[in-house]
Write a structure and sequence with these properties.
about 220 residues; alpha+beta; 6 helices
Length: about 220
């Protein structure tokens, strides 16, 4: 076994001594931690790790309760020392970075990118909604249902189809825009640029260069 190394293991924040296996056939230290359900906050110097459970718990709280990283980590500190939470080591910055990495790994796994190396194309990391009408998948439309291709005898059927299958577009907006301008925009790194629901940054800038907002 190798020499002991101090790590901050975050489920309840506390230091712990970890000894890595140094046998000839042993895997790398970071893989050993992954096998124990621990996610490194840094791959250069192993000092802080988060359990897989705490990362899953944060994603669920963030989804269902809208809790921020700062509030979630404040909860962890209070769970560790309820009387003096300020005495607990502050790993808020590390949790912000690791939570994003964990979310990307979950998306890769959910979309079948976990066991083989494949190129992630635009939109590949979006979750398919089985409830939404998808022509050719869970929705069958008659051939040539346009009004030009139909005669008067088919008008009643077309009215029924337009009533059954109606596409609606909903626009949403941020009424606060508190973080419209980032303090350090160069520090923002996209992990899934264009692979989710939002268009890629490069395509968006090309659109802005030629778009006319009509104002």
């Amino acid at each position: 076994m190798g020499a002991g190394q101090g790590l901050e293991i975050c489920r309840f924040t506390h230091p712990n001594i970890v000894k890595f296996c140094t046998c000839p056939e042993a895997v790398a230290a970071d893989i050993q931690l992954f096998q124990m359900g621990l996610f490194l906050a840094s791959f250069l110097e192993s000092k802080t790790v988060f359990t897989f459970n705490v990362l899953d718990d944060f994603l669920l709280d963030n989804l269902e309760c809208g809790i921020s990283v700062m509030n979630y980590y404040s909860k962890l500190r209070r769970m560790t020392i309820c009387v003096f939470p300020n005495l607990v080591l502050n790993c808020y910055r590390e949790l912000m970075r690791v939570a994003r990495q964990w979310q990307k790994l979950k998306l890769l796994k959910w979309n079948d990118f976990s066991h083989e190396e494949k190129e992630v194309r635009p939109g590949d990391l979006t979750l398919f909604c089985p409830v939404c009408p998808q022509p050719g998948i869970n929705l069958t439309l008659p051939m040539g249902e346009s009004s030009e291709a139909c005669n008067a005898d088919q008008e009643s059927n077309l009215e029924m189809l337009s009533w059954l299958y109606t596409r609606s577009l909903v626009m949403d907006r941020n009424f606060k825009a508190e973080h419209l301008h980032a303090v350090n925009p160069t520090d923002k790194v996209s992990l899934i640029d264009g692979c989710g629901f939002m268009v890629g940054n490069l395509l968006y800038k090309k659109h802005l260069a030629i778009a006319n907002d009509g104002i």
